[in-house]
Here is the input.
Amino acid sequence: MNSTFIWFYAFSLLLLVAVVSAFVVAVASLIATIVRWKSPNRRGHVRRLLISLAAIPVLVGTQQAVQRLVFLPALGRQQMAESNAARAERSADASVVQVGDAAPQFSIATASGAEFTLPATDQVVLINFFATWCGPCLAELPHIDEIWNRLQANENFRLLVIGREETLDSVLEFRDRNDFSFPIAADPDRRIYSLFAEELIPRTIVVSPEGRVVYSKAGFMEEDITELKQVLEQQLNGGR
Here is the structure.
C-alpha cells in the first residue's frame, strides 16, 4: 500500500473515531437532557447535544472535502507518474535508439517523390511513425500536422511522417481523407522503423542538428505535445 493511501486512511480513521465519539456524546446528552430536564444542569446537556450534532456533519464534510480536494488529486498524480514511468520503461525496452544516441542513417522516398535523408546538416528533424489502423496515431497526427503548418517555412526544420507496414497508396489515401498536409512516406517492410525500434506506435522522434536523438516517445498522451513543442523550440533556438 502506497503512502497516499496510508495517510488518507489514517486521517479518515481519526475522523471516523471523532464522528463516533460525537455521536456517543450526542446520544448521552440527549438521554441526560430528557432525564434531567428539570435539573439546573440541563442547559449544559443541551449545549453538548447541539455541539455534538453540529460536529458530526462538519467532520463528515471535512473527510469528503479532503478526499475530493487533496486525496483524489494526489492519487491521480501518483498514478499518472507510475503510468508514465511504466510507459517510458516499455518504450525504452522496445527502442533500438535511445535519447542521446546518434540517429541512424537512412534514405527514403516521400510520397511527393523527394528524397528524405538522415542525418541532416544543421537541421532539426521530426520523425513520426504511424499506421492507418492505429487509434492513438490518429489522435496524435492532428498535432503533428499543426506543428508542420507552423514550422514548415523554417529552413532549419524538417518533418516526415512514415507509415509503418503501409503502402504508398494507403498513406496517401489516409492523409487525404484526414486533410493532413505534412510530408509522408511508406515503410512497407519496416526497413526504416527497425532502425529506431522493435515495436510500439505511434513513435515520435526529434533529431538535433548534431544528429543526436533528443526526444523519443512511443504511444500518445496530450501532455506529450507540450513537451514535444518545447524540445523543438529549444533545438531551433540553438539548444538554449
Helices lie at 3-35, 42-93, 135-151, 168-177, 193-196, 222-236. Strands lie at 106-109, 115-118, 124-130, 157-164, 184-187, 203-207, 213-218. The first helix runs from residue 3 to 35.
